[in-house]
Fold this sequence. Notes:
This protein is an alpha/beta fold. It has two domains: about 10-195, NAD(P)-binding Rossmann-like Domain (Rossmann fold); about 215-435, NAD(P)-binding Rossmann-like Domain (Rossmann fold, 3-Layer(aba) Sandwich), CATH 3.40.50. About 45% of the residues lie in helices and about 15% in strands. A six-stranded parallel beta sheet has the order 3-2-1-4-5-6, with helices on both faces. The protein has a six-stranded parallel beta sheet with strand order 11-10-9-12-13-14. Strands 7-8 form a two-stranded parallel sheet. Helix 14 links the parallel strand 10 (about 345) and strand 11. The chain is globular, with a radius of gyration of 24 Å. The N and C termini lie far apart (about 50 Å). It binds uridine-5'-diphosphate-glucuronic acid.
Amino acid sequence: MGQGREPIGVIGTGYVGLVTAAGFAELGSDVFCVDIDAEKIAGLRAGEIPIYEPGLAELVTANRERLRFSTDIADALEHARLLFVAVGTPPTYSGDADLSAVLAVVNAMPASDDHALVMKSTVPAGTGRAIKRIFAEQGKAGFRYVSCPEFLKEGSAVKDFLNPDRVVVGDDGDWAGDAVVELYAPLEAPLVRTDTASQEMVKLASNAFLATKISFINEIANVCEETGADVIEVAKGMGLDDRIGSKFLQAGIGFGGSCFPKDVNALKQLAGNSGYHFQLLNAVIEVNELQKRRVVGKLQKHLGSLVGTTICLLGLAFKPNTDDMRDASSLVLSARLQADGASVRLYDPVAEEEARELIRGAHFSDDALDAVQGADAVVLVTEWDEFLSLDWAQVAERMAGTVVIDGRNALDAVAVTAAGLTYEGIGRGSLASLTR
Length: 436
Ligand code: UGA
């Protein structure tokens, strides 16, 4: 594809950086990837992809000759005008985003009238203005700045990169913004080109809104449990209204991951620092924390005290098709269950290695059927495909008890009950309505 496409640099070869690099290589650009982690760069040069993301390894392999990996920024500066920044911005203790990695990149840039930083990392509103001020103070006023956040989702990142709902570019209306717009042109996505301050808010507000939608449907689910309604039917009925839409209305045991918890907090913090109390976001966060713990109450309802019980958690990653364990509901759940005296058995098809770093004192199994062995209750935490097609008769044979809590409303309730097990979802009405 595309001879003569603009070469680019990508600084930071984490999840967003690698997908961006591979995606632009696929569109025909030479991509100069830079990371301070020498081990990671050595691995990438040897063809090892450090994260699990469907389609990414294939995309990197297919575009090998257009992708260069280095710990030295010099190559990128020599060959590319646009340097995409995709370094981490984790939350600090105060809840603000830690911008030290971003600032290290800014400080490492030479004076130049022919280069631009293109911000992919999620940064608080105002960061663009601050970076331009730093460039000016350092005598690098000619260095351009463009803000262009990534909206991709883990687990479908490659697909999301190649088929974006929209491309949002925040810039000063100069050559750098034009060049970024040109780079994305082959994807034929709707474009919003605006100032950097508005653009930065688009990303934070979008993630905060989606998180709000999830906490909202989770509260509706909790009310459904009181009234005997089925949240799946309720969400279907709501979602058919175009103004609401059906996406992100799946009730469950809370959202996790590297983005929603961080961005909701970052927006709340940003508002607070400017003197505005963002009340709604406090509730979104609190509802989410309570939702993760709700399973414990459900288990107690069925089993009484959890002391001496064995509970199996199926799925550990914060969602399927990723090995990412950041802010996963499984972390809170396994810790709570153990604190209440239960033995915990765990299984995840991909995230075990990551999970072992974070979860202590539980038994890790090699497959689902081993994990359910001797369990008084099984909890579906992450809706991996392989759990949806489990043979429930075999599960029932291995379990000591009969309780199945479907934390993602993803299982076939009829199949579970047909195996003699007791099904309970999140916000689902009586079994009668499930079998209708
Ligand atoms: C999210 C956004 O969806 C992306 O648009 C954004 O680019 C990304 O953050 C980011 O800022 O980098 P991601 O965190 O990868 O993407 O995952 P999602 O698919 O959005 O899921 C987040 C969490 O919400 C998961 O724990 C998932 O289980 C939960 N969820 C999602 C629900 O509980 N219910 C839903 O209906 C949807």
